[in-house]
Design brief:
Oligomer: single chain
Order of helices and strands: HEHEHHHEHEHEHHHHHEHHEEH
CATH architecture of the largest domain: 3-Layer(aba) Sandwich
Strand order of the largest sheet: 2-3-4-1-5
Helix content: 40-55%
Bound molecules: adenosine-5'-triphosphate, magnesium ion
Largest sheet: 5 strands, parallel
Number of strands: 8
CATH superfamily of the largest domain: P-loop containing nucleotide triphosphate hydrolases
CATH class of the largest domain: Alpha Beta
Shape: globular
Strand content: 5-15%
Structural class: alpha/beta
Number of helices: 15
Length: 389
Amino acid sequence: MDPVYNPYSPGAGRKPAALVGRDQPRSDWNVALDRVEIGRSAQPFVLYGLRGVGKTVLLSDFRRSAQRRGWLVAQVEAGADKSLREALGEALHAPLADLARPNAGRRLLKALRTALSFKASYDATGTWNFGLDLSDTAGGGADTGVLETDLRKLIHDLSDAAEEENVGLAILIDEAQDLEQAERVAICAIAHAAAQDDWPVLFALAGLPSLPRVLAEAKSYAERFNYEKIEELRGDVAVEALTRPSADDGIDWERAAVELIVDESAGYPYFLQQFGQDTWNAAEGPNITYADARVGAARGRAALDSGFFRARWDRATRAEQSYLRAMAEDGDEGSSSGEIASRLGRSAASFGPIRASLIAKGLVYAPEHGVIAFTVPGMAAFITRQAAL
Ligand SMILES: Nc1ncnc2c1ncn2[C@@H]1O[C@H](COP(=O)(O)OP(=O)(O)OP(=O)(O)O)[C@@H](O)[C@H]1O
Ligand SMILES: [Mg+2]
């Protein structure tokens, strides 16, 4: 069928035609927005899970629901060549510029001035002015150079301004496992202070399965955050992810075709989208048959092998690849790092740098101390296929 109308969307952060199976966290988030709007506090949300399960898509959905209510919203990605300070500063510019106006209230003007000082803290040549003369306005001071102090001042003044505008402030941070330690500590401490004093601010962090542990290590009160494990889609929900997008175009799937793709993808959203896309393109129409799904699954597997998996594999050095090969023997479940070391005939300590580099590259994570696992579902099987070549 015509690829121009293909409704499937494999790809990092790509909004699916049907966002299924996330009703609970979406409704929890809306309750939190409601709470903040009536002056109550809400704990930060932490979305964690393997690669390709849909964390970014859900985080962006959170962002849109805050934006629909007119909230002041910043969504950033940690570790993407920018410090948290700079990423947040830049993400806040557009929403603040939208609010800026000469007859703005006192608290908004103050927040704008504080945002200017925050900008100056990482960009000496920065020339924001919001088109306003703020020289007689209170505020500023978010430029001491100490991240926690500056960020606290910024978030405090911005949430105060949001309140004046009858909305709230939402800060969303993707890939939060890549935050620097000082950044993690600052976010946890500020979220804690905000909850104690009922600032109208809501945080959401998304990241790999190691995120809850690294947050708890940063600050013990992070244990009270609102943790949501994002997992593969099961049963009817996986069926819906596949059938709803095409149903909008009046195209149905044969039952056996759906079962094959749900089975092949093990319900992982990324894989469902990939196989859905390839099956659609293989189909003659008007409906999608089992034969189409077989072709789609084969093409989808080839596409994942040469793209999704291959890109990650190629990111590893030869020494790292041999470590990954040793891990692959244990499948997707994870391996004891001591066991891997003895498999490779060296001491566990000598593999410290390799492990650290693989973690930094986002290929593996430590579910608990002494254990190492792939961040990508199906990676072990892919590596085993490579080894057989
Ligand atoms: N609830 C869902 N229903 C249907 N498709 C989904 C859903 N969530 C995500 N997807 C699809 O899955 C793919 C991966 O989504 P996303 O990039 O959000 O995953 P992620 O968990 O952020 O992955 P990574 O850890 O690599 O950043 C995208 O193609 C997206 O369209
Ligand atoms: Mg993501």
